[in-house]
Specification:
Elements lengths: L7 H18 L8 H22 L4 H22 L7 H19 L5
Helix pairs in contact: 1-2, 1-3, 3-4
Length: 112
């Protein structure tokens, strides 16, 4: 039984969500937390692997920009919602500009 190939946009979304997980997990990494550190490391590797999968079909610049954008928006959202980081109007506006860039890159990438 062969597993059908994953749509590159789905791979990229998974990679971005995993980036949010490992970037957010950095707050809990350290020598006194080996299991947490291992989970963050494995999540990081998985994120890079899904990014690599996506780049097999998508332009590298588009894939990388969207991957980092998802990670930045997600980590900022986690910071605001969970860690109590500031949620000023200007900060939210900047996050929305990143989201608009991600959407624009997807819409105008020329790849289905």
């Amino acid at each position: 039984m062969t597993i059908p190939p994953l749509n590159p946009w789905v791979s990229l979304l998974i990679a971005g969500l995993l980036e949010v997980a490992w970037a957010s997990g950095f707050k809990f990494v350290g020598p006194s937390r080996p299991v947490t550190s291992l989970v963050v490391g494995v999540t990081m590797i998985a994120s890079f692997w899904f990014l690599w999968l996506a780049t097999q079909k998508l332009p590298i610049g588009t894939a990388y920009a969207i991957w980092t954008g998802i990670g930045a928006v997600g980590a900022a959202g986690i910071g605001i919602l969970i860690y109590g980081e500031p949620s000023t109007t200007l900060r939210i506006l900047c996050i929305l500009m990143i989201v608009s860039g991600i959407v624009g890159l997807k819409l105008f990438s020329g790849v289905q």
